[in-house]
Amino acid sequence: EVVMTQSPAALSVSPGERVTLSCRASQSVSSNLAWYQQKPGQVPRLLIYGASTRATGIPARFSGSGSGTEFTLTISSLQSEDFAVYYCQQYNDWPSRTFGQGTKVEIK
Amino acid sequence: EVQLVDSGGGLVQPGGSLRLSCAASGFTFSTNGMSWVRQAPGKGLEWVSTISGSGGNIYYADSVKGRFTISRDNSQNTLYLQMNSLRAEDTAVYYCAKERGYCTNAVCHWYMDVWGKGTTVTVSS
Predict the structure, then answer these.
(1) Are B70 and B60 spatial neighbours (Cβ–Cβ below 8 Å)?
(2) What is the pLDDT of residues A64-89, one digit of tens each?
């Protein structure tokens, strides 16, 4: 099983700041990585697939990068609606797609 | 608009059974793989099971293999998850999710692009 490790577990950020979240895979997953956003009591929403392609309707302030074992999700200027938990998921190891434990982005 | 409506959750005793449903609309259901993903209280996301569009290919996480059965009725645009021999550790919100794929170098990869609102399963005596 591919283990996904996200860091940090949580961070406090002020609106307007730039945020960088990290995700590491225990073995190479190529570019087969997705990022999801989950707000409290809500459904996970797809942000990024293919490590760097934004899903339909996702604002340009969200960007993804990386390949192999190291990945990054960047929010260029954090908006109030972006406070949430962010999960990375590898889908290279079919069918056992595994998620990271999540990074919680909180208001500072 | 793609919509997935999960239902069927509830409180069940350990060892009991439950069947979840997911009603789909807004896309061609029979040509899309579908999955179930769960989230235990206060925890992260765990893939549970996937079924291909035709229903001919089925996959399970080791944690549910032999106890859960995924199926679909393409005439009713509905996905199911039959859960037997339930354990306390199966307590979670269960989400159905639509699969979307792309192919590079003749290899195809699948991720979950739309999720249902979830249905809560509680296993407790």
Answers:
(1) yes
(2) 999 999 999 999 999 999 999 999 99
Chain B residue numbers with beta carbons less than 8 Å from the beta carbon of A92 are 109
The DSSP 8-state label assigned to residue A55 in this structure reads P
Percent residues over pLDDT 70 in chain B: 100
pLDDT tens-digit readout, A21-67: 999 999 999 999 999 999 988 999 999 999 999 999 999 999 999 99
Q: Are B74 and B55 in contact (CB under 8 A)?
A: yes
A28 touching chain B per CB within 8 A:
no
- The one-letter code for the residue type at A84 is A
Residues 6+ apart with CB under 8 A from B48: B35, B36, B37, B38, B60, B61, B63, B64, B68, B81, B94
Q: Tell me how far apart the 2 most distant CA atoms of chain B are, in Å.
A: 51
Backbone angles phi, psi at A19, to 5 degrees: -125, 135
Token digits for A63? Answer: 């960007």
